[in-house]
Design brief:
The structure is a homodimer of 727-residue chains.
Chain A: H1 2-6, E1 18-20, E2 24-25, H2 34-42, H3 45-98, H4 101-126, H5 135-143, E3 145-146, H6 153-168, H7 177-192, E4 194-195, E5 200-201, H8 211-230, H9 233-243, H10 250-274, H11 306-325, H12 329-353, E6 357-359, E7 378-380, H13 381-386, H14 390-399, H15 407-424, H16 434-455, H17 465-481, H18 485-495, H19 501-518, H20 522-529, H21 548-551, E8 559-560, E9 562-564, H22 565-573, E10 581-585, E11 597-602, H23 603-611, H24 630-636, H25 650-653, E12 656-658, E13 669-671, H26 676-686, E14 690-694, E15 700-705, H27 706-710, E16 712-715, E17 718-721, E18 723-725
Parallel strand pairs in A: 1-18, 8-10, 13-14
Antiparallel strand pairs in A: 2-3, 4-5, 6-7, 9-12, 10-11, 14-15, 16-17
Helix pairs in contact in A: 3-4, 3-6, 3-7, 3-8, 3-10, 4-6, 4-12, 5-20, 6-7, 7-8, 8-9, 8-10, 9-10, 9-18, 11-17, 11-19, 11-20, 12-15, 14-16, 15-16, 16-17, 17-19, 18-19
Chain lengths: 727, 727
């Protein structure tokens, strides 16, 4: 997230009571102008059916590619981490005898820092938007906020590279969050049938080149990402819906579901080939919790979300610190390297000072058991937690038999890892927070289970601390990200056992309620810190006092149906207003009265019109040279050129432009007296970008945009208003 | 469903190309009139928080009561069916030796018919709406169609009684579908804080007495019903969303989820007490498939949904036949009894003529093994399928070890049960189609599995036909009801094993695609046959040709801001139009021009105004005697008196009524040129009842209602228009 931050002026102290004017909105309402209607009317019933089939094909492709990427990340991380741990292990074994383990420590720290440096360099210098998990950005995208460069091919490449480096570099991060971002980028790319970065247009899927269609595919991509990350297709669909969609459409849901299925199947298929067991399909996701088989129906201990809230609060202060002081790319890279080195050091120290030796059993899942100072046939149990990728550590905590871990070891580990994870989230590396949260939760859950079994040692039902680890992991993750429905399904799908569903639900609900008392979810905290105009589900409940009249921006710059080119260019070039939508009013502009609304035209449409010089010569009335087509608009989408790049001569400035064909003739309007919740509902349900406020006579009196609505929120003393800032 | 049918004139040949004008709409858009706004503005932030807590409490109550009802049904059915089977079993055992099994047959048939008669009598004569599963009606309710009497207390009582009778009567039905309806009724009752039937008003929850809030609770109730029926809380939420909600709201979803959780927990808790194992919580739902433990990751045989479509087609013709010829309650009761007797006879014949004896093992789940003509220590395997409640039969098919069933037995059983189930669905009894579908599917799935194991007997992976039974059950149910996402989750939660998720998904998708090729889902077929103006998710794709001008009803009866009482009474009494919403226009009515829109008022509001005689005396201008409050409207909700019951004297007819305070001053409007898909989207997304069409000058030119939109649908030759009928 530090990416968005970087592009803001450094001197302005960051404040979440601001709302940035920097972010544009996406338009999830089709502009139904004449060109569009003509095209739709030309299309036969068969045509629409083909379109529908194409949508399914695209969703299949999205799922397939997302699954492939997940597979690639997984294999790369496993290989690299394997080499690293092998090297360090051999080194440690060598120096345990000789004395001089500090050399091993340095080797470990250097290896970690080197990996992290590579990843951090790429992210900080090439594509800052690729930092973090990308989930807040995707949430914003689906909400309707345009985050620049978030779904570009370059972002995807850097993201994948970055996540491989940071996980292999031993940071307290997971590779699951970035998969969601990756899936979304794949979706945005595939559905458009071209890559603007590579300057390659396949001339397919042109119909889908608009925000409305793109959003649907991006939802599918995000779902496919979740599905690949956790092997949870239903959870993926729910994630997309819980975080993104506002208008639920059954057909769309099925397509999203299909993409999720294909994604998990692809990952499964290729990983099974890689592991030499083709057709076994036993790795449904990037993380595999292993199967929980036994019955846990009576575990109803409800853990609190307090630790989750604590995580968010500390990270919140840390992020503010970062925004203020660490904004130069090289500083960011250095911080990332520092964290990597510290992680290695802390891990090493913990392993070194822990005397917790456990016998080396046959059924242990450890891949790199470290003997260190233990007797032969024993291994250091702290090392199983640290000397491993976090995914494996989580699995060990869930499944290792009772007695594997010493309570003190676990307690110290939890504290240390908590501190590391808080520090790590928000670094300029691509990484997710899911797995670290699970790991922290699993560790203290298991600790709690062990303590409980000391107290009530008679009852066999309290015996398996692995179950407490699972519940603890759910509570911690729920306390941090505050998703309930989708997270329940994801965890149930990942554990492969429905019986845990009920305790997980209870725990997540409790974690959410407790956590919300202190602070919002981590993603929401970060979104707020970026001053993104994010629209929540409902208007603040106490906002019935406000009406459209108070909320709207006014006065509005309007155009006439037939407008002078010079005026259009002047209005578009005016950087002080920088409006994106302009109501079109009927002819009378001579008197000062605002005209009657007859349409709405967007900046992007005007730019295309200017570029193609669709002018009506003054003499030859109303006959333009070449008929502009919908295709011309689609070709320019989504990177419309700025007005400065379009040259309009002095003669041309005197020409007129007829907007009738291109404007949306039926924009949604509301009267001035409409209450804010009503305006909000209309705006949110239909995914609007501009809502025209009219008076009794249908004259334009104002325009409501996303920022006008996002401004109001419920604070401690009731309704508060955020300030708009140019940052 | 035959309930809705009954109330229609019998002589009109039924036609699904009609759209009935009989059905009113619900209004899911708040009427934000002055009274409402004043109340909202008076409320503090604390007040809204209390309201939110109240919502959670109500959802908890809904879940609790729904769980209790499910528990009651389950225990009653088990007891009654137990007595019945025991009696018949003893009788059969007695007469197997003596000869004279026809007496047993008669006993069985009479017992069945008696049970069914009771249930059918109650349904046919007391509350016809309680017939069937109730799912189509709840779908309609959530869609915004007012189905009379569907959420009344009486309906609930009859429904519960009916379902106990019909399941105990041995019909090929399940008790799961009706649970969804029951949950919805509970929700509608609890959330209103009163029962109009019992004339008891608890004076609580008055804030929730309007369609918008009620719908939210009914969604929660339906979800709680699914959750109790299948032990599938997440599936319940998804069902509500897939079938009902159009505007997805995160907070609402969490409340629905909570209701589902409470419901399954309650059922679980009380059933575990009933079974003498308190605290074990091992019966999460009414149906319990037992746990599938082994791995099935390679079962990818995709079954087709053809059989499901066949079911729907036959049932479609049968329903038409019933609508035409069997519309008298006594005929309906007789048909139900006939079916019950035939079911007993067919079952008996099948058991009698099958020579499929199986050794009586220790691990069999049969509760009533029938020896009949088998050797000692053996039992008749056909009897396990017929001599049992369908839930148990399904479980046997899933879990009995390979070799339990003879392929011929299974084949004959499938055919016979298929015929019975098709005949049964649509009878005037309360019953669901889920379990019969599962049973048919399980039988032929197992049959398929057995045949496959004959062919590929070498591979051990094909060995367990129980898995094929599960897949077959999913395919059959999917082919009949055509839900994908929610059904996947329901089945996964019911089987308790996520590994089956992927094959189930594939099968459901395929079943849906194949089935849709032939005919719609069963519920949609029945909704269509009732000519309900049901709004689908999107407008037909080829409907861009149409604009609001063509679609709207015109001319519109408008009222003035201050209108003569006489005119209002006359308009409301006019049975030929029977409008429910009236645009209010500004004063000028002298000229023939339509006036400018300034509000919208509903028939129900006008009725309340007339009842309370809120008239402005001609002399004392604009001073009504008593200030009407929102409470007066809420007290009358939802059964507003008809206009005929309100007496207005000749003097009063000359008075005036000021509508300003009571009308919705900001109704949504669209210009005449708006395309149908755009109108549809606005209407559907916001759950509107009336949408005013205005011209350039904001003058009312038409009104779009649900019927105007539901009229258009995609037929074989493109867009078709349904005819409106007064039926």
């Amino acid at each position: 997230m530090s990416d968005i931050v970087r592009s803001r002026p450094k001197e302005i102290p960051h404040n979440e009571k601001l709302l940035s004017l920097k972010f544009e909105s996406l338009d999830y309402d089709n502009s139904e102008n004449q060109l569009f209607l003509e095209e739709e009317r030309r299309m036969s019933h068969m045509g629409f059916r083909c379109l529908e089939i194409t949508r399914w094909v695209i969703c299949g492709l999205i799922g397939f590619l997302t699954g492939l990427i997940a597979c690639m990340i997984d294999i790369a991380v496993e290989k690299l981490a394997g080499y690293k741990y092998l090297a360090v292990k051999q080194n440690i074994e060598k120096y345990t005898e000789l004395g001089g383990l500090s050399i091993s420590l340095i080797l470990w720290a250097v290896l970690n820092s080197a990996f992290v440096m590579l990843g951090s360099l790429a992210v900080a210098f090439l594509e800052p938007i690729a930092a973090g998990s990308g989930i807040p950005q995707i949430k914003c995208f689906l909400n309707g906020v345009k985050i620049p460069r978030v779904v570009r091919l370059k972002t995807l490449v850097i993201k994948v590279f970055g996540v491989i480096c940071s996980v292999a570099g031993g940071l307290a991060v997971g590779k699951e969050g970035p998969m969601i971002h990756s899936g979304a980028v794949v979706a945005a790319g595939v559905s458009q049938g071209r890559s603007t970065s590579l300057k390659k247009d396949f001339k397919i899927f042109e119909y889908f080149r608009r925000d409305t269609e793109k959003r649907d595919f991006v939802s599918a991509g995000a779902a496919a990402g979740v599905s690949a990350a956790f092997g949870a297709p239903v959870g993926g669909v729910l994630f997309s819906l819980e975080e993104g969609a506002s208008f639920w459409n059954q057909l769309l849901t099925w397509r999203i579901f299909f993409a999720s299925m294909v994604s998990t199947f692809t990952l499964n298929f290729f990983l099974s080939i890689y592991h030499g067991k083709p057709g076994q399909l036993s790795s449904p996701g990037l993380i595999n919790f292993g199967r929980f088989d036994s019955d846990v129906s009576s575990v109803f201990i409800v853990f609190r979300g307090v630790l989750g809230a604590l995580f968010n609060i500390i990270n919140y202060w840390l992020t503010i610190f970062r925004i203020r002081y660490i904004h130069r790319p090289c500083l960011q890279v250095m911080e990332a390297m520092l964290v990597a080195a510290v992680t290695a050091t802390v891990s090493f120290a913990m392993i070194y000072f822990s005397n917790d030796c456990q016998p080396l059993g046959q059924d242990n899942t450890e891949e790199y058991p470290l003997q260190l100072f233990c007797a032969d046939g024993e291994y250091n149990s702290m090392a199983t937690a640290f000397f491993n990728t976090p995914e494996r550590s989580v699995r060990s905590l869930f499944h290792n038999p009772p007695g594997t871990y010493n309570p003190v070891t676990l307690g110290v580990f939890t504290l240390a890892y908590f501190a590391l994870a808080v520090w790590t989230y928000g670094l300029t590396v691509s990484a997710g927070v899911f797995i670290p949260s699970l790991l922290i939760g699993a560790a203290w859950g298991r600790l709690f289970g062990i303590l409980l079994s000391f107290i009530a040692s008679s009852q066999s039902i309290w015996a398996d601390p692995g179950k407490y680890a699972l519940i603890g992991a759910a509570a911690q993750l729920g306390g941090i990200v505050r998703m309930t429905l989708s997270l329940t399904v994801i965890l149930v799908e990942a554990t492969g056992n429905v019986t845990y569903g009920f305790p997980i639900m209870l725990v997540l609900m409790t974690a959410k309620i407790v956590g919300d008392y202190f602070i919002e979810g981590l993603y929401d905290v970060h979104i707020k810190l970026q001053s993104v105009p994010f629209l929540h589900w409902d208007a603040p409940p106490t906002s019935h006092w406000l009406t459209a009249r108070e909320v709207m921006s006014s006065p509005v710059t309007c155009f006439n149906r037939v407008e002078k080119v010079g005026r259009i260019v002047d209005v578009l070039s005016n950087t002080s207003t920088n409006h994106n939508g302009f109501p079109v009013v009927s002819d009378t502009t001579e008197n000062d009265e605002p005209g009657k609304i007859c349409g709405l035209i967007l900046r992007s449409q005007l730019i295309v019109l200017l570029k193609h010089k669709v002018f009506v010569e003054r003499a030859s009335s109303r006959l333009s040279q070449r008929k502009l087509q919908l295709k011309d608009f689609r070709d320019a989408y989504p990177r419309f050129p700025p007005i400065q790049s379009i040259h309009v001569s002095q003669d041309e400035r005197e020409c007129m432009m007829d907007l009738t064909e291109f404007m949306n003739p039926t924009p949604y309007t509301v009267p001035q007296e409409t209450s804010l919740p009503r305006v909000f509902k209309l705006f949110r349900a239909l995914g609007l970008r501009h809502l025209v406020v009219v008076d009794n006579e249908n004259r334009v009196v104002g325009l409501v945009t996303r920022k006008d609505l996002a401004r109001y929120h419920v604070g401690k003393d009731g309704l508060e208003e955020l300030h708009l800032a140019q940052t």
